[in-house]
Amino acid sequence: MALEKGPVHVIQRNRPRYVILSEESYQRLAAGVEVRGRLWRRLLEDDATPVAPRSREDLDRELQSEREGWSG
């Protein structure tokens, strides 16, 4: 099946019209959108609220947690 090789691009009237994804690819894409949304909300909220300084280890831990969410 074509989806086993990746997304299928549907062309209509010589223009890209649709992209068909496998369920797994869609879930990864949707999870990435959700993670980015959470990150932006945190950044905007944190900007308005002063916080205590964090250690390098705490920051590294938070970044690693965010990165793990990106890979799905």
From TrEMBL:
<feature type="compositionally biased region" description="Basic and acidic residues">
    <location>
        <begin position="54"/>
        <end position="72"/>
    </location>
</feature>
<protein>
    <submittedName>
        <fullName>Prevent-host-death protein</fullName>
    </submittedName>
</protein>
<comment type="similarity">
    <text>Belongs to the phD/YefM antitoxin family.</text>
</comment>
<dbReference type="InterPro" id="IPR036165">
    <property type="entry name" value="YefM-like_sf"/>
</dbReference>
<feature type="region of interest" description="Disordered">
    <location>
        <begin position="51"/>
        <end position="72"/>
    </location>
</feature>
